[in-house]
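Please go through this protein, sequence plus structure tokens, and consider how the sequence yields the tokens. Keep your notes short.
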Amino acid sequence: MKTLDNYINTYLEYCKFRKRLDTKTLKAYTIDLKQYTDFCISLLSTDSLSRNTIDQFITTLHKQYKPKTVKRKIATLKAFFHYLEYIDILSVNPFSKLDTRFREPKLLPRTIPAHIIQNFLNTLYFQKERATTEYQRKCCIRDIAVIELLFATGMRISELCTLQPGNIDFTNNTILIYGKGSKERILQIGNPDVLDALSLYRKTFHKDIKICGYFFVNRLQHRLSDQSVRYMINHYANLAGIEQHITPHMFRHSFATLLLEQNVDIRYIQKILGHSSINTTEIYTHVSNVKQKDILFHKHPRNKMEVIKG
């Protein structure tokens, strides 16, 4: 397995320094490829690069994990073997003769109804007004800026937490977002309340931001973490009396779905969300169709018409 380990280490270095993948992706790749190495060791197989070994490994994955996880792990392995072919370790890629397709249940993205988002925002602003200490007020100012930006742009929580001060242009009201695979996109911030929230946050936390180097900071002047945002959302949801479990990513789902319901072209939504494929964005059309069904079944004016039929 030493040779396989060497190949994997070389590949991970390639991903880090040449492809410049983010730390989360590198961590996932490391875990997935280590799992493949362990599987090969358990087989006592010397042919870790063969089609048969990969095929057995994929079967094992299907027995242990949900389809979405299996799909990701297969994608990791496929990328690794493509690299081995690229550097001429393999003359023939074993994946070229493997059928890795399988039926995957479509899980509709969970969204937050517009009235609940409004209730959530009202609670945030109410808490800021009734804050009894300067520390509480500062926390509310930051939390308002976080939620307003999440919902205004549909950005991922990882994109928000790694946002740097220079990425927000307050002159042109734009934000530069570094997405998956180091892809960049620039979005306009058009809502005045969102701009006010961001400006007040920057003014209040300017010293902390300068020390930290990131736009959103915690009380220790470190970068705000994904987990801190999750905790914060749960806190305000409880204060608002919202029973629905809300996650940061649900603001992204809701942003996309509500835009679709406003008849925004799905191609624009794809670019705003930073999806490389339109297929990823099309999942929101299914959510929109569910809403359409609800409207036609329960709110159509025909339901209130009493027609004499005989």
Q: What stands out?
A: The chain has 13 helices and three strands.
